Amino acid sequence: MSDAINLGPAAEIEEGEARVVPSEEIGTDDDVTIFHAEDGSFYALDDTCTHETASLADGWIEGTEIECPLHSARFCLKTGEATCMPATVGVRPHKVEVVDGDLVLYPNQAP
């Protein structure tokens, strides 16, 4: 599925917080997490850490990286690239943007 999905008001996700969008609602292989970075930007990544099964939504946003809560692997919020061991494989990024105050997700589309 590559159609745009309106997720509602962007203001519902505070800076430094994340929100999981279940895969069955958006037609993806994994849940997608929307991250509201400390600089005010929004990013969307597959939710599951590639090192071991853990929800990245439960991790810590630091700048433009998310730290996995299980073993501290880090991923770039912009690209999904693994930036710190123990993860060596990145997670898939998705396009997300704010349109008229709402978050719009484009599942399976690169940012």
Automatic annotation (TrEMBL):
CDD domains: Rieske_RO_ferredoxin. Pfam families: Rieske. The lineage of its organism: Bacteria, Bacillati, Actinomycetota, Actinomycetes, Micrococcales. It comes from the Bacteria. InterPro entries: Rieske_2Fe-2S, Rieske_2Fe-2S_sf. Signal peptide: none annotated. PANTHER family: 3-PHENYLPROPIONATE_CINNAMIC ACID DIOXYGENASE FERREDOXIN SUBUNIT, FERREDOXIN-RELATED. Keywords: 2Fe-2S, Iron, Iron-sulfur, Metal-binding. It comes from Zhihengliuella alba. SUPFAM superfamilies: ISP domain. This is Non-heme iron oxygenase ferredoxin subunit. Residues 1-25 are annotated as: Disordered. Residues 18-105 form the Rieske domain. PROSITE patterns: RIESKE.
